[in-house]
Design a protein that fits this description.
The complex is a heterodimer of chains A (about 325) and B (about 260). Chain A has about 325 residues and is α/β, with parallel strands linked by helices. Chain A contains 8 helices and 16 strands. Chain A has 2 domains: about 190 residues, Rossmann fold; about 120 residues, Rossmann fold. In chain A, the strands form 3 sheets. Chain A has a 7-stranded parallel sheet, with helices on both faces. Chain A has a 5-stranded parallel sheet with strand order 13-12-14-15-16. A 3-stranded antiparallel sheet of chain A has the order 6-7-8. The radius of gyration of chain A is 22 Å and the shape is elongated. The longest helix of chain B has 17 residues. The chains are: A alpha/beta (about 325), B alpha/beta (about 260). Chains A and B meet through helix 3, helix 4, strand 5, strand 8 and strand 11 of A and strand 3, helix 3, helix 4, strand 9 and strand 11 of B. One flavin-adenine dinucleotide sits at the interface of chains A and B.
C-alpha cells in the first residue's frame, strides 16, 4: 500500500431523508480544519436524497465535494448494504480517511467495512490532530478510565477510519466553498440483506431526559445517596435546569443512561454546570468541559474536578445542596 | 441444538489503576484482573438461550495465561466449554488482529449459530469487536440487543429487541447472528457452590499461534495491527478554579450565588 495514492477526507452524512444527524455536520466542521491542514478535499458522502435546505446546511460547512450515492439496498439502515457500499467506494476512490458519526448505526458498519478492506479503525477520539511529518491523523482519546490520554494512529494503512461521538466537536460552519457533485450508483441486492426491522416503539418522550441542550445542569456523582436525589432534582428545577449524572450512578441503577454525561454518554454545554460528589475523571470531563461556568462541590480538596472548575467548594455535597435550596427559597 | 459462542475479555479493573506521580506511568501491580463486566451480561444471555432451546455454550478469550480465570468464571456461570488463546505473538493486537485470531480459532470448533459479545470492554473500550467478529464469521449482527425473543432453528432466523437511541426496535436476522448485549435484561447469575467448584478443575482448551492451523503470522499481534498507540500522556489539567472558602457553608453558598449571578 502506498499512502501517497490516497487523497481526501470523507465524512459519512447520516440522515433520515429529512434532516442530517447533527454529528455528521459537527464532523464536517472539524474535518474541514484537518483537510485544510493536509491540503486535501473534504468530501461528504450522502446516500439517497436530502431536502435542499439540508444540502445547503451541509455546504455551509465548507465541503468541497458531495459524493451522492443511489442504488438498491439503502431503504432502511442495514449493516450489510452500508458495509458493502463503503468497501466499494473506498476501493474506487482511495480516501485517506473516513469519518463516521458514533451513532449506533455508524458504530455498526464502520468497523465492519474497515475489517473488510482491511484497515485500522478507531472510535471515540475526543481530539484530532494532523501530523505534517507523518501525514497521519492522530486520534487522541482518554484511556484507562481517563487516567491517561492515548494517541492512536494508523501509520501504514489507508483509509484511516474513525467513529466520533455526537457532541464531541462543535458545529461552527465556516461558509460555502465551490462544491462539486459526484454521482455514484452502487446496488446492493436486497435479498442479501440479513436483517429486517419488524417493529419500532419510540420511547415515551420525556423532556427531563433530554439534557443535551439544557442551560443549567446539576450533575450528581457516585457519592450521591439515593435518598438525597429529590434535593438535587429540586435544585435543578429551581435553577431552571436539569439533572445529570456520572456513569457509576447509572451503573448502580440509580439514574437512566440518558442522564450520563461524558465520553460514553451525552456531551453537554450548559451555561452553568454544577457538580456534586464528582471526582473529575477525564471520561466525564470530556462531556462537560465546554460548559460556560463550572461549579464543583466535593469533600476531597484534592479532587481532580477542582482543576476543571471555575468555582469550587470543599464540603459535604448534601449540606451544600441544602444550603443552596435554602438560599433559593428565600 | 444451538452452537453458541461467547467472546469474553479479561480486563484490569481500571477504577483501581493508579498513576505513578513521579514517572506518570500506570501502576498495574496489585490491580485485579476481572471478567469484563459487560461480558457477564453477554454470557447470561447466551446461557438463558441455551436453557430455552438446548445447545452448548462455548466461551473464548484471547489473552495471557491468567485469562483462564475469566473463563472459569464463565464456566461457573453456565458455560459448557472454554477456549483460551494465549501466545506472546498475539500481544499488542488491535481489534482487527484480535478478531482474526478469535475467528480463526473458533472455526476449529464447528460453526456457531449465535455469537454473543459485550458492548465494550473496560480497558480498550473501542466497541468495535462485535462488528469485526461478525464480519469475519460472515454473520449478521444485532448490536445493543436487549432481549432475545425467539430463535427459529428450522427457518434459520432469530428475532430480538434492540435498545436504540430513540426507542426499541424489534428486528429479525438470519443465522448465524452476532449480538452485542445490553445489560438491561441479563443480570448475571450468581454461581452456586457446586458449579463454582466444578469450574476450578474444568478443562480449558488452550491454543497458541502454532496450534491454530493456517494462522497467518502477518495478521496477528503487532504486525497484524494497523492501529498503533505511539504515545500516551497524562491528561492536561488546568490551574484550580477559584476556591470558595468563607468559613461556613452558608457564607460559601452566598458567595457562590454572587459569583454566578451573571450566569443565572
Ligand atoms: C471506557 C470508559 C468510559 C467512561 N465513560 C464515562 C462517561 O461517559 N461518563 C462518566 O461520568 N464516567 C465515565 N467513565 C467512568 C469514569 O472513568 C469515572 O469512573 C467516573 O466518571 C467517576 O464518577 P464519579 O466522579 O461520580 O465517582 P467517583 O470517582 O467515585 O467520585 C466520587 C467523588 O465524590 C466525592 N465525595 C464522596 N462523598 C462526598 C460527600 N459526602 N460530599 C461531597 N463529595 C463527596 C469523593 O471525594 C469523590 O471525588 C468511563 C470509564 C471508562 C473506562
Ligand atoms: C487505550 C487503548 C486504545 C485502543 N484503541 C484502539 C483503536 O482505536 N483501534 C483498535 O483497533 N484497537 C484499539 N485498541 C486495542 C484493543 O483494545 C484491543 O484490540 C482489544 O484486544 C480488543 O478491543 P476492545 O478492548 O476495544 O474490545 P471492545 O470492542 O470494546 O469489546 C467488545 C466485546 O468484544 C469481545 N472481546 C474483546 N476483546 C476480546 C478478547 N481479547 N477475547 C475475546 N473477546 C473479546 C468481548 O465480548 C467484548 O465485550 C486500544 C487499546 C487501548 C488500551
Amino acid at each position: 500500500m502506498n499512502k501517497n495514492d490516497y487523497r481526501d477526507m470523507w465524512v459519512f452524512i447520516e440522515h433520515d431523508g429529512e434532516t442530517i444527524q447533527p454529528v455528521s455536520l459537527e464532523l464536517c466542521c472539524e474535518i474541514r480544519k484537518i483537510a485544510d491542514a493536509a491540503g486535501e478535499k473534504l468530501v461528504a458522502v450522502v446516500v439517497g436524497t436530502l431536502p435542499e435546505s439540508e444540502t445547503e446546511k451541509l455546504m455551509e460547512t465548507g465541503v468541497d465535494v458531495i459524493l451522492r450515492v443511489s442504488g438498491t439496498g439503502y431503504g432502511y439502515f442495514n449493516v450489510d448494504a452500508y458495509a458493502n457500499l463503503f468497501t466499494v467506494l473506498c476501493r474506487k476512490y482511495l480516501p485517506t480517511a473516513v469519518f463516521v458519526g458514533g451513532t449506533i448505526n455508524g458504530r455498526d458498519f464502520a468497523p465492519r467495512f474497515a475489517c473488510r478492506l482491511p484497515t485500522g479503525c478507531t472510535s471515540d477520539a475526543t481530539e484530532l490532530v494532523w501530523d505534517p511529518k507523518t501525514t497521519d491523523i492522530e486520534f487522541i482519546e482518554p484511556a484507562v478510565g481517563g487516567k491517561m490520554m492515548a494517541v492512536i494512529t494508523v501509520p501504514v494503512m489507508r483509509p484511516q477510519v474513525g467513529t466520533i461521538r455526537p457532541g464531541t466537536f462543535k458545529y461552527v460552519p465556516t461558509g460555502k466553498r465551490p462544491c462539486s457533485v459526484i454521482e455514484e450508483t452502487v446496488d446492493f441486492p436486497e435479498a442479501e440483506i440479513r436483517t429486517r426491522v419488524l417493529d419500532f416503539k419510540a420511547d415515551d418522550f420525556d423532556e427531563s431526559l433530554n439534557i443535551a441542550d439544557a442551560d443549567v445542569i446539576v450533575c450528581v456523582g457516585n457519592a450521591v445517596k439515593v435518598d438525597s436525589l429529590p434535593k438535587y432534582r429540586e435544585l435543578a428545577a429551581l435553577l431552571g435546569g436539569k439533572l445529570g449524572c456520572t456513569r457509576p450512578v447509572f451503573d448502580r441503577g440509580v439514574l437512566p443512561f440518558k442522564l450520563v454525561i461524558g465520553q460514553s454518554g451525552v456531551v453537554v454545554k450548559p451555561k452553568l454546570y454544577l457538580s456534586f460528589g464528582v471526582s473529575g475523571a477525564v471520561n466525564h470531563v470530556t462531556g462537560m468541559q465546554d460548559s460556560g461556568c463550572i461549579v464543583a462541590v466535593n469533600k476531597d480538596p484534592d479532587a481532580a474536578i477542582f482543576k476543571y472548575c471555575d468555582y469550587g467548594i470543599v464540603g459535604d455535597m448534601d449540606e451544600v445542596c441544602e444550603q443552596m435550596l435554602r438560599h433559593l427559597r428565600r | 441444538m444451538l452452537n453458541i459462542l461467547v467472546c469474553v475479555k479479561q480486563v484490569p479493573d481500571v477504577n483501581l489503576v493508579k498513576i505513578d506521580p513521579v514517572t506518570g506511568s500506570l501502576i498495574r501491580k496489585g490491580v485485579p484482573a476481572i471478567l469484563n463486566p459487560l461480558d457477564a451480561n453477554a454470557l447470561e444471555a447466551a446461557v438463558q438461550t441455551k436453557e430455552q432451546y438446548g445447545g452448548t455454550v462455548t466461551c473464548i478469550t484471547m489473552g495471557p495465561d491468567q485469562a483462564a480465570e475469566a473463563l472459569r468464571e464463565c464456566l461457573a456461570a453456565g458455560a459448557d466449554k472454554a477456549i483460551l488463546l494465549s501466545d506472546r505473538a498475539f500481544a499488542n493486537a488491535d481489534t482487527l488482529a484480535t478478531s482474526y485470531v478469535i475467528t480463526s480459532a473458533a472455526k476449529l470448533f464447528g460453526s456457531f449459530d449465535l455469537i454473543f459479545c459485550g458492548k465494550e470492554s473496560l480497558d480498550g473500550a473501542t466497541g468495535q469487536m462485535g462488528s469485526q467478529l461478525a464480519e469475519r464469521f460472515d454473520a449478521s449482527q444485532l448490536s445493543s440487543m436487549s432481549l432475545l425473543l425467539a430463535v427459529d432453528e428450522a427457518g434459520k432466523t432469530v428475532t430480538a429487541e434492540r435498545e436504540l437511541e430513540k426507542g426499541v426496535e424489534t428486528a429479525e436476522a438470519k443465522l448465524p447472528c452476532l449480538f452485542t448485549v445490553e445489560k438491561t435484561n441479563y443480570r448475571p447469575r450468581i454461581p452456586n457452590l457446586k458449579s463454582w467448584k466444578a469450574s476450578r478443575t474444568a478443562e480449558i482448551t488452550t491454543l497458541n499461534s502454532l496450534s491454530i492451523p493456517g494462522l497467518d503470522p502477518a495478521q496477528i499481534g503487532d504486525p497484524g495491527s494497523p492501529t498503533k498507540v505511539p504515545r500516551t500522556y497524562p491528561p492536561v489539567v488546568g490551574e484550580s478554579g477559584h476556591m470558595i472558602d468563607e468559613g461556613s457553608t452558608e457564607k460559601n453558598v452566598d458567595t457562590l450565588f454572587e459569583l454566578i449571578a451573571d450566569v443565572l
